[in-house]
Structures are given as C-alpha cells and as structure tokens.
Amino acid sequence: MKVVVIGCTHAGIAAVKEILTYYPGADITVYERQSEISYLSCASYLQLEGTITTIEDARYADPEDFVKQGVHMKVNHDVVRVDAKTHTLLVQDLLTKKLTNTTYDKLIMATGSITAIPAIPGIENAKVQLCKTYDQAHDLCDYAPDSKRIAIIGGGYVGVELASGYVTSGHEVLLIQRPSHLLNAYVEPLIADKVAEVLKKRGVHLLTDTQVTAFKDAPNGKLLINTEHGQDYEVDMAAISAGMIPQTDLLQGQVDMAKNGALLTDDYMQTSDPDILAAGDAAMCHYNPTDEDAYAPLVSHAIRQGALAGINTFERRLRTIGTQITTGMMIFDYTVACTGMTLEAAKAARLNAASVVYEGPYRPEFMPDAYPVTVELIYDRNTRKILGAQLMCEHDVAQAANTVSALIQNNGTIDQLAFLDMLFSPNFNDTYNYLNLAGQLAVNQEKGYLRT
Fold it and tell me: Per the CB 3.0–4.6 Å rule, which of 29, 112, 282, 414 could disulfide with 72?
C-alpha cells in the first residue's frame, strides 16, 4: 500500500515516524517544497538574540534520517494537483521543472500554513519581510546586520518574540499592533499590559490600536511606514507577522473544509474522503473548552495530529483527545504561559464566565528571588468548570499552564483546583501553590466573599 505525505515539517515528520512504526510494510513517499525539513519558526528570534548560532541548530530531523529507513524523500518537489477521485497527483521537481504523474492509496495532507499578508499598499517592497518559512527566516537574519531600525507588524506570539530578539541583538524596534492589546488572542488585558511594560522598559517602541496603511520607499533609501493616525515612521526593514492561513488549495472542492479553508477531520484525523487524512496547520482541531472545532496553528498540535494521522493511516486505532491550545513564551526574563479561553472568548461563546486574579510571590517571601506571579483564572459560573488560565512571572511558571490544561481536559472545577494536591517546598512554592490560591479566590468569589 502506497502512502503519500505532502509536506514534511512537524505534522509530516510525526506522521512518517508513526507509519514506519505501525505499518512497516507501507511504501512511503514524501513531497516537500523545501530542501530541508523540521524548521522551527522560533529559531529566528533565538538566533537574533544569540541563544543559538544559526537557525539550522533548531532543526531536529534530516531527510537522510528517513531515506535510511526506506522512505522516498522528494525534497524540492511541489505537488501541483491532487485528484481525490482518481487517487492521482501531479508533481513538479522544483530543480529540473519536470512534471510527473503518480498515485496514492492513502494521502496525508501536512501542507501547513502561510503567513497572512495584509492588503497594504507597498507590502511587496523588498524591505518588507515575512517570517514563516525556513528561507524567510534566513532573510530576516541576513537583513539584521545591515538594519538598525526594524518594524514588526503584528503583536502576536511571533511578533513579540521577534521584538525581544531584535532588541537583544542591539536593534531599535518598532512594534505595531492593530488591536488595542498585545497577544490579544491569548491573554487578558491585565497580562497584555504587563508584557507591554516589559517590552517598553527594554526599549521597544510600541504602537497598539494602530493600523499600517502603506509602505513606501523614503528618499534616503529607508522604508517609510504610513499609519491611519497620520504618523509616518522610517525604518530599515519591516517584518510581517499577521496570522496564518491554512494551505489547502490542493483539495479545494474535494473534501469538507472550515470557513477559513482548514480541513475538517474526525477524531482519527480522517477528512470527509476516507483515503485522505490531514494534520497540522492545514487542519482544524477539537477545542475542548467549547467542544467545537478551532484553528490553532501551533507546533504542539501539528506533532500530535501528525502522529495520529500516521497511527490511523490504514486502521482507526487512536482518537484525538482534543486540545486546550496551551502555549508559552519567554519575554526577556519573564515567562508567559496560557491555556484555554480568555474571558472575552468565553463570553463570546455565550458562557456565564467570570475571572479572578491572584498576585503574590511564587514562593515564600523569606526565600531569595520570590518573584511575584500573576495568575488570571477563567471559569464557568454555572458548572464551576475551569475554562482557562494565564500566568506571568520572572520565575519559570510554564508547567503550571500544563497543570491547568490537564484539569480542563478532564472537566476540572475551581473547587478541585483550590485544594489540588501539590507539593510544598520553600524552594518551589508556598504551602498553597499559586494555582491553589487562584482556585480559592474563584471559590470565594462564588460564595460572595469577593466582588465580581
């Protein structure tokens, strides 16, 4: 049986590994446009800030690893057309330009996503860079030495990480965010404001609630950025980080898709075509807090979905358990981690949601570096179920988000969180962990001890 995997970044790699394990007799062919695989987009800012020497250091797989296991690795190959009815593909070798027709028995779509390019006049300017693919990351890093002042358009995770990377490497940074708060899809305004303050203290010039209206060449050779407020900014280059769009045009009209074009799958990663599976940024995921489909282009999802697609290629062996969209990032010395819903998202989902904020030292104050931690906890007042949480601290509190994620996964309540058994040592936390204390605040709020 012939399995074709289109795309070999995170989802594709995970799928191939599981096919090799579960179906050792399968004939596996992989088509990948790039010459390399396993590029991590976080490598750009890690190289800029000096954590790694080159973006190649962040790769975790090599095409030859699979070739040695019998996989037909077709790098620098682009799948031009998929015909689901006839199980055929039209493929182009990007080096020789030769076109070839081939077939498949099972197809795994791991085609990923592309950077959403805003419809801004002048965005095609050579000084305006994207930051998604391996080649684009090289361009960002190559431009850096010759660029003193850099603008980043988009204040999501990628934009904030790039800002911190460029500032750390000695650049002047202008970060422009259209919404009124940074990281607006992930954190509450309280934590967004704290992130903004950290960036400003490190020298980032931050513009929120600001829309870029045009990019132009300045007379002195710089890039001129026009904004809706009538203010212009001169920079040496700009990086666009404005969200992701699933790359699924190959299956347009052939399988069921969401409104944004992402592929709809069942719990076994199978699309509406029984011989086509999908994973990663090309597919939707099951979002547990709302029990509905959601789009979340994250490496963590891509790897898990890719693994499931590989495991379920020929047999329906293992179902997805869904996701809480748990994420984390470092902003200079601070950890920001979150899971589940924001309060705004919960209310938009018509849930009777409320939130509490715990602020206090993450461990006893008599200990050195007892950094303050902020925890914002969101929950359903009707069911008392936890809907989400966000944390920020100079101490590494990332694993706390995983703890809350596990609770949401299993319908955990604020009552359970309030007295969840968690270790005590003054080296790590207080007698009650800060998550316990956040849960206790929520319980007290529902008892009427706190004002909502």
Answer: 29
pTM of the model: 0.90
Strand blocks (E) in 291-333: 292-294, 327-331
Dist CA 347 CA 327 (whole Å): 21
The residues that are catalytic are 10, 42
> Can you list the alpha helix ranges (DSSP code H) found in 69-224?
134-143, 157-168, 189-201
Helix (H, G, I), strand (E, B) or coil at 356: strand
| Whole-angstrom Cα Rg for the chain | 23
Q: Buried b / exposed e across 331-367, counting CB within 10 Å, b at 16+?
A: beebbbbbbbbbbebbeebebebbbbebeebbbeeee
Angle at 362 between CA 358 and CA 366, to 5 degrees: 125
Low-confidence ranges of the chain (pLDDT < 70): 39-49, 52-53, 55-58, 132-145, 450-452
Collect all residues with Cβ–Cβ distance below 8 Å to 382 and sequence separation of at least 6: 351, 352
* Tens digits of residue pLDDT in 217-276: 999 999 999 999 889 999 999 999 878 899 999 999 999 999 999 999 999 999 999 999
Q: Which residues, 6+ apart, have CB-to-CB distance to 346 below 8 Å?
A: 289, 353, 378, 380, 387, 388
